[in-house]
Amino acid sequence: MGKLNPHTSAKKLIHKLFRFKIPIKFNKKYSAFVLLFLFGILIFLIFNAKDSRDITITVGAGENKFKLNFDIPQEKQPKLDHLLDKLALPLSIKNGFEFELDATSSAALAFSLPVQSILDIEDNTIKFEGTFNPTSGKVLPKAVFRVPASTNFAIYAQNLQDFINQKLILPEEIANWLNKNLYANEGQIMVIFGKNAQFALITHANEVNFEDLKNIQISSTKEPIYKKDLIEEFQEVHLLKIPQNNGQKETTFALFQTGNWLFFTSSIEAATDLIKINKSQLPSLEFNPGNGQEITMAFLYQNSGEYPINEQFGKFLFGERVELVKFAEKISFGEFALKKDQFSGLINLK
User: Are 30 and 20 in contact (CB under 8 A)?
Assistant: First the structure.
């Protein structure tokens, strides 16, 4: 079993990928499948295949490490040898290799093993589907949304609370209110869109206590942080002006409710765009996670010429993980769906 030697830049990139701690803690098991999704990209880049012959990837565990094995068609061996040499990677990688994860992701992946995926590669498209050890992930309620045409990333998952808390600097009082109202029910949609990487978190909420927002006071400011307003003539919105501790300008978040859906957005502009889309006044696209099938998580990624990802998008989703941003820039489209014991995905490369 070959081991990656993290000295060359290409090797470091792979090493960092496999040590990547998934920032979105949808459920403990999901890191395994995001890992497989990312590795699918790497496999395509290495092979640059032009035929549709299947490549099989199997992930197994042993001696506190994970082992990734390939079933490589014989006719691709010479081309692969040349590319591995060009990338300064050992030829032993063809025999499989070992990798490690952080403790949380390691436990999640071990619990879901065995994982097996078949890759179907043709031109700049890679499709993959596979199976894993069934876990106790709950099936999400079916949901179909109109999202901005400029959407770069949309995800439907059990709980996005950890991710949002990690990305936003919120006073404890506001965080507590969100915990009681925004995250009360499982199943949330997050959308990242627009030139400034605006975001919206959408959740099913039967009862939302906006009255409590009026009484929240923050010790770091004497100014009221809450304001109720109307935008687009009839839509009631709840604005939260949050002071920042890093010397930056205060941030105004906007919340509004449409039917049984509660929207938490990064700005008034983001809220306005979503309200206009609901009225069919702005271009939009349909986000139908899992295409009507029962799922426990699904996401959509777009990086088109008209709406490319940018620095703000990379920082919001990946933080300082530059290697992941570089991978994302090479992808024009991607989708992934996780079911009870199966998963499937599609990647289009530029």
Answer: no
Residues 86 and 149 in one domain: no
Task: State the residue range of the domain holding 155.
Answer: 145-287
Number of domains in the chain: 2
pLDDT (tens digit per residue) in 82-103: 545 544 456 776 666 555 544 4
Residues of the chain with pLDDT under 70: 1-72, 76, 78-90, 93-123, 132-137, 184, 244-248, 323
Q: Are residues 195 and 179 both part of a single domain?
A: yes
Round to whole Å and give the CA distance between 305 and 197: 16
Which residue type, as a one-letter code, is found at position 348?
A: N
The rounded distance, in Å, linking the Cα atoms of 228 and 224 is 11
What six digits make up the tokens of 197?
A: 């990487």
| In a shared domain, residues 67 and 123 | yes
- CA 119 to each of CA 11, 41, 76, 314: distance values in angstroms, whole numbers, following the listed order: 22, 11, 14, 27
Tokens encoding 329:
């820039």
Q: Do both 213 and 164 map to the same domain?
A: yes
- Looking at the structure, tell me whether residues 43 and 165 fall in a common domain: no
| H, E, C per residue of 175-237 | HHHHHHHCCCCCCEEEEEECCCCEEEEEEECCCCCCHHHHCCCCCCCCCCCEEEEEECCCEEE
The angle formed by the CA atoms of residues 157, 154 and 200, to the nearest 5 degrees, is: 90
Residue 347 to residue 127: CA distance in whole angstroms: 6
pLDDT in tens, 270-283: 999 999 998 899 99
Residues 120, 177, single domain; the answer is: no
Which of 28, 65, 57, 23 minimizes the C-alpha distance to 40? 57
Pair (190, 131) in one structural domain: no
Q: Which residues pair with 237 in a beta bridge?
A: 229
User: Residue 2, exposed/middle/buried by CB under 10 A (0-12, 13-18, 19+)?
Assistant: middle
**What tokens does 312 get?**
């703000």
| Residue after which a domain boundary falls, among 287, 321, 337 | 287
- Residues 30 and 55 grouped into a single domain: yes
